[in-house]
Structures are given as C-alpha cells and as structure tokens.
Write a structure and sequence with these properties.
This protein has helices spanning 9-57, 62-74, 86-92, 97-110, 112-118, 125-136, 161-216, 221-244, 246-250, 258-286, 293-317; strands spanning 140-142, 146-149, 152-155. The protein is mainly alpha-helical. It has a domain at 18-110. A hairpin with a 3-residue loop joins strand 1 (140-142) and strand 2.
C-alpha cells in the first residue's frame, strides 16, 4: 500500500540492541543499589553490635573492628540517615574519632589474628600504641604464623598465649626504661650546657671590666678599636664552642658509632692544635712577660679563673 512505512530488519536489530544495552545498564544499577542497601543494612547491624558491646563491655571485638574498617573504606556512613560524616559515625557508635582511628591503625599494623590473640591479655590503649610504634622501627615483626619481638619468635597460637603476653610486657618495659634513661641524659646535658653558658657570661663581664679599666687609662683610638675586635672575636669563639661542645655535638644521636667518635675527637684535636699554634706564635712574638708585664698580669688572672672553672666542672660531674 502506498504511504505505508516499512520497518527493515536493520531497524529492528538496532532497536533490540538499544533495549539490550538499556536492560544491561538497568541490571547494573539494580545490582549496585542492592549492594548499597546491603552495606547500609550491614552498617546498621554493626552499629547495633557496637552499641551492645559498649553497653556490656565498654569495648568492641576484633570482628566488629574489621567491619568498621570496611564501612570507612566503602564510605557507607555517608548513606546512613542523620550521620553523613565519618566523625558523626564514630560519635554515633559511642566512641571518639581519634579512638576509632587508633584502633584501625592497630588493625592495619598488627593484623586480625594478632589482635584476636591479644584481646584477652588486658593490654591497654597506651600499651597498644607503644607496640604499634615498635612495629615502625622493626622491633616487632608480625606474620601469619608468629610474632617476632627483639629476635624472639612466638607462634600465634592459643597454647603460646602466656609466652606472648610476657614478651609484650617485657618489650614495653624495656622501651619505657630506655626512654626514661634518654630523657634523664638529655636533662643532664641541658644542665651542663646551662652551667657553661653562665660561666661564659661571667667571663664576658670580667672582660668588660678589664676593658673599662683600660678605657679609664686613656686608650688611643687604635687600642680601643683593637680591644673591641678582640671582644667580638672572643664572643664569636664562645658561641662556636657551644656548638663544638661534646655534649651538644652528640645530642640527638640515637647511636654513637666509632666513626662518629673519631670524627668528634679529630675535629677537636685539630681545633686544639690550631689554637695552640696561634698562642705560641703570639707569645713568642708579642707576649714576653718581661717586656709586657700587663700581659703577664692578665694571663695569670685568666689562668686562675680557668682553674676554678675546671674544678667546678669536675665537682658537678662527680
């Protein structure tokens, strides 16, 4: 019949292809929606379990912690009514965000098996943080079968529960002891540096007095300029010696190796030889006490001050 539209096979095939594509896309969206609904339902279940555990035990199981990690990774909390953010989710289940974050760090550092094993040890929140820090420096190594702490290996098995607990307590005690000793050493070094700084200030005051006496004796402009130059040189030298002080130079090092000790001693020996060489040259050229009696007087006063300072340092170290 004239004017009647004819549908070709190609058109039919095209329509079918469009339908199949749309159907496949719809199936994907339906599957994603179902998965999302399942995650939301699982999240609600986790919330209920956490709140129940918190009411009874004030804590949560490792299994629940694993599920919380999945909720965070999938960001399921965004789809929960009246929550929306990770911090709101943590607060909703009764814990602070910081607490949950620390628990998840423990899970990532130790693994589910280790946490499951030590869950009944009574290991506290702070102790777990210390253990986690020890995994970073290699003190604790955990694999699927055992825990190695300080070279001692203990299987992750129920029959070795007491061995593992004793090992954990020992390594924490050793770490605390080492930290306390390091802090005490640092405080002692700070006190010595403070004493040396006070002594330097005292010497500066004495030098100023000598300069004032010299000024009263009507110094020439050249003498005044040279004394100021020497004063600046001594102050700069004192400041540099604070950095060269063995305690200050070694401060902050975790291990003092033979190479480090050799570098320190050789540098100080070099400085000593250079200073002695300059001193000998000055004495031979300008410092004959017979020719310059004022030099002898000042050097004698300085030697007396230095001897008193040396005795003070020996007494404080004893």
């Amino acid at each position: 019949m004239a004017g009647k539209l004819r549908v070709t096979d190609a058109q039919v095939e095209g329509v079918n292809e469009i339908y199949k594509t749309a159907r496949a896309q719809a199936d994907i969206e339906i599957a994603e929606l179902k998965e999302k609904q399942n995650r939301i339902a699982a999240a609600h279940e986790v919330i209920g379990r956490v709140q129940a555990f918190r009411f009874v035990e004030k804590t949560m199981t490792v299994c629940v912690l694993v599920q919380i990690a999945q909720i965070k990774e999938m960001k399921t909390y965004r789809d929960l009514p009246k929550i929306g953010t990770w911090e709101d989710f943590c607060n909703y289940i009764g814990f602070s965000r910081q607490h949950i974050e620390d628990q998840l760090k423990n899970l990532a550092a130790f693994g589910e098996d280790f946490l499951q094993t030590v869950s009944g040890f009574g290991v506290g929140y702070r102790e777990m943080r210390k253990l986690r820090q020890l995994t970073h420096d290699g003190t604790i190594v955990i694999d699927a079968e055992a825990v190695e702490i300080g070279g001692e290996r203990v299987p992750l098995a129920p029959e070795h529960k007491e061995d593992l607990q004793a090992l954990i307590e020992r390594v924490i005690d050793e770490k605390d002891k080492a930290l306390n000793e390091a802090q005490a050493t640092l405080k002692a070094k700070d006190r010595r540096l403070e004493d040396k700084e006070k002594e330097i200030q005292k010497l500066h005051k004495e030098l100023t007095k000598l300069e004032d006496k010299a000024a009263a004796g009507k110094m020439t402009a050249e003498e005044d300029s040279f004394l100021q130059k020497m004063k600046n040189l001594r102050m700069g030298f004192d400041g540099y010696m604070l950095k060269a002080d063995p305690d200050a130079a070694m401060s902050g090092l975790t291990e003092i190796t033979p190479r480090i000790r050799a570098a320190l001693i050789s540098n100080l020996q070099y400085m000593r030889m250079q200073a002695l060489a300059a001193y000998d040259t000055a004495v031979m050229t300008y410092g004959n006490p017979t020719i310059n009696p004022e030099v002898a007087t000042e050097c004698e006063a300085f030697e007396q001050e230095y001897e008193a300072w040396t005795k003070q340092q020996q007494t404080s170290e004893a």
